[in-house]
Design a protein that fits this description.
Layout: H1 7-20, E1 30-35, E2 54-58, H2 62-65, E3 74-79, H3 101-115, H4 117-123, E4 130-137, H5 143-155, E5 161-166, H6 177-191, H7 195-209, H8 214-217, H9 222-227, E6 237-238, H10 247-265, E7 269-274, H11 281-291, E8 300-307, H12 316-331, E9 334-339, H13 345-355, H14 365-375, H15 379-391, E10 396-397, E11 403-407, H16 408-414, H17 421-429, H18 434-446, E12 449-451, H19 452-462, H20 474-483, E13 487-489, E14 494-497, H21 500-508, H22 514-528, H23 531-536, H24 538-548, H25 557-569, H26 573-585, H27 591-594, H28 596-612, H29 616-627, H30 634-650, H31 655-668, H32 680-697, H33 700-704, H34 712-730, H35 734-751, H36 757-772, H37 775-791, E15 792-793, H38 797-808, H39 815-824, H40 826-832, H41 835-852, H42 857-873, H43 877-894, H44 919-935, H45 939-949, H46 952-956, H47 962-981, H48 984-1002, H49 1009-1022, H50 1026-1043, H51 1046-1062, H52 1066-1083, H53 1086-1093
Parallel strand pairs: 4-8, 4-9, 5-7, 6-15, 7-8
Antiparallel strand pairs: 1-3, 2-11, 10-11, 12-14, 13-14
Length: about 1100
Amino acid sequence: MPPALDDESKQNDLSSSYRSSDEHSFHKAGVSVVSANRSVFSTAATVTSEDGGSSVLSSHKAAELRKPRTTGRRSFSYQAQSNDSTNQALDFESMPLIGREREVATLDACFARMIDASLHEKNNTFESRKELVLIAGKSGSGKTAVTRTLEKEVLKHTNGIFVQGKFDMNTSSEPFSGICKAFGSLCLKIKEAPAQALCTVQACINKELGSDVDLLLHLIPELRDLISDTFNDPAVMDIGADEIDSKVERLRFAFRVLMRAFSSAASPMVLFLDDLQWSDVSSLQVLDFLMTDAQNENPLMIIGCYRSDEVDENSLLHNKIVALQEMTEKHWFHLTEIEVGHFGINEIEQIITSTLPNPNVAGTLGLATICLKRTLGNPFFVLEFLKMLHQEGLLHCDANSDLWTWDVDKIDGATMSTANVVAMLHDQMTKLPHQVQALLQCAAYIGSTFTGSTIDLVWTSYGRRLVESKTERTALLLDFIVKEQILEKADNNTFRWVHDKLQEAALSLTGKRRESFQLDIGRTLYYGLDKNQVEDELFAIVDLINSGNVLRLTEFASANLRAAEKARDLSAFQSAAEYAAHGIGLLKNDKWSTDRSLTLKLYTLAAEMEAMVGNFAASERYSSEVLSQPDLSIMETIPLKMAKASSTGSNDLKFDDSVKVYLQLLDEMGCKVTWARRLVPVQSIVKLMRIIKRVKATPQSFYDKMVPMDDPRQKAIATVYSKLVYYSYMAGDMLLFVLTACKLVEMTLDYGVNEFSAKCFASLGSAIIISMEDYTTATTFNTIALSMLRKFRGMHSSETTFIIFGANLCWVKPFNEVLTPMGNVVTEGLRSGDLEYAICNLVSNKISLPYTMGRPLASILNECPKTLIQCEDAAQSSNAMALKVLWQMMKNLSDPSCPNPSELEGDIFSAESDEETLNTHVAFVNLAQGELALFNGDYETAAKRALEVKDMFAKLCPGFLVNIAEPFSRAVPLYAAARSTKKRKYRVEARRLLKMIGKWKAAGNPNVLYYHLFLTAEQFALDKKYDSAQQKYEEAIEAVTAVGHLHHLGLIHERYSDFLEERSMNEKSKESLRQAIRYYREWGAGVKVERLEQRL
């Protein structure tokens, strides 16, 4: 019995087995690998030549060439046995960069532009520090090698990071695959950063994402190790439902926060995404998220490589590139496209002379011509072709003369059948030991990268079915393959293919067994890995099973459900729809009777996901299948019925139809809202009075001790009520809105807190202000809502905060106390996916409220571009339009060169060409036109406009805090016009507004104190009560000085100056005018300052 062999002996035995398996007459050696990481690249003209004969090259690097090379990009090569005439290896290690100077220079220029801080400081365009470079070319053209030239430059910087993510041909439908690989590598790199930088990253993630970091942990397991020392859930209870339509926005925010955190600690940051032609729609969305993030001020470069011949006009990638091209100007990032072509004869000659040392240059043209003819100038194919020639003995070095020799005619005849690089590599792999081939086939189906434990599981469980003899240890086979440089070993016992062509060649080894191979490997992984491992690799495993499951085995329907649910949770809705559909296809004909629960889940999920991607016909088919089942309960059909109702409202804009569906659904659930719509007015008033009485009678301690609602049925009813609240508001049925909000408040008091409780308390507070002007009771409702926000997470805090502060508390609190909370909640709104109210709070915090408070125009104008980008990025068109209107208005006020500052015209917005009819837009246009007329002293025009619009803003935009200041801006020119024209119509309307503001003052609104004092002064002046008027003017000046509203300081001083001038108090009038000029200058109203200075 022979002695046991150690690993080294087995390796030698494997090598011997490989050499003995040679069937080619020219083959005399085993497999070795040399480096090709100095790969060659760039477009060159193709030149053909027909040169024959024999040529020789000498070598002086024999000893060096015999050394094994184990770094960089590698591929097959053949190393001669000792004392053989072909004992020299081909020298790709020392080969210089060839033929890609232009491409590399372009890439370097993009990098230099990104890191040039002085350029961006000069132009004040931090967004332009983002670079997107797309490198296209056929497989093997050297795209990756071009990109890799930048890595050394990046790493010259102390905190520079260069990471790669690669997409896989086998998992092109797997959501986020390449993106997550890149971010996983980033996590590992960041973890090695200095302690201070690491702490900054951890603190940023913890603060900005909180518990939402779980969204990313499912995608990027490496992130868990990075934040494990610092991540703690906030000490509040999470009661919010994970709504499908907010998932994309939540994930967008999460990826952006993660990149901001990483790129702030590691700069410059270069993210390399390889093989984008195999990317999925979700990964391309992330690419979009990162490049359009206006809040990321750090340098960021993303390089994407793709095979140009596998991307056409109908592909996902092509459409995304077109979309990104259209975004560059608006989002201020650079997009550069580089095309990498094939070699011409000159570049191939350079490869030959660089690979074979000390060449006889005159003898290389014939060999280069054959290389060009057989490879069509593909760089990777050229290298593999030369290696094949060397292996077959058609290129050899004489040991005595140290000369390289070849016979061109012999090479031409022997390589006639060389078809493509995959076929050539396939032929070489068939000469490997049988067990090595079998392991390579398994590895090829697992993916472009895999762990040692995964391939070991597959090999030990499945490998014995592929080989006749006892299977060798996985580690032994992997070691052999790595030494042959087909695979390379990375960190954490991870392996990856040296080139994707090698993976393709390994896949081709399976031949007709491809489908069964995929199923067997997928099944091995699904049942062999533990629960967490299966979850991490779920998409890849299910893809393998689905590709090979030609027998339609029902057992894997549940696996597809798991994959669909995971994809849904990651907002990869297209993938979720596909997995659900595949799972449905695996169900039996009697599915509703034999596996009802699984069937219901798959059909419901398929309907929801198809609706999310806009495939409403498919969604309707799935829904109809479910709703046609006679024995399903109302609780089981609620999701589909709600989805149908919401689709009617959101997509068809038939809000009243949605209201009817939700009323019917509540009726089916035993919750009749009203017996008839005509009874709603009376019911809403009665219900509101009862709710007010009950809320007031309930002590605050009750609210402090409230717990979440836990009854599933009541939670479902609350969800339906919440939808009815929304669609009744959108349908304009405000009384039904109030009635339904009362129902939700009542449910909160009876059954506990749900995610809509705080919003409904705040909404009723707003309704009480609008309908009853009872600010004390409204404050009670707002206080309860705020206490819920502090205690519970997931309560639509951005929307609730906007209602509480922007619509309610602004009537009883100073503006400056409203400003900060609205700004603080923007991030929470973006994080939770509540983009509409996040942007409402943002615009209020950055633009409209600062303007109302008379903050310097320059500071507000500086916020306009970034805020507009965020509005458009969040697809909030109404806020974007309002912002443009206000931006143009402030620009006209501040710019002395404006040709007609009283008109709302300019490069940002033009009222003359405006055709928008949306209520909020019309309201803001009227507001801006009135402000321009007012501050440009065109009082009669402003007064006429005030008579035309009257309370239009309050009617079109109920609940907006601007409603407090807008009547004041109308009243001022009305009083001015009344005094100058003596027309009664101006006097009557001005006095009406004075009384309105007087009621607000009496109710305790601190923001209208100086409004009322000043307008009272104007009324006294109009009534010729000059002494009283002068006293009130001075009181108004004192009051407005206390709050520091610059625009109204200027305005009130200006009007006081006019009053004093009418009274012939010229010196005092000029002093007041100087004060007006001073404050207008501080405010930044350049046009106004120039006009007033002419009066001195």
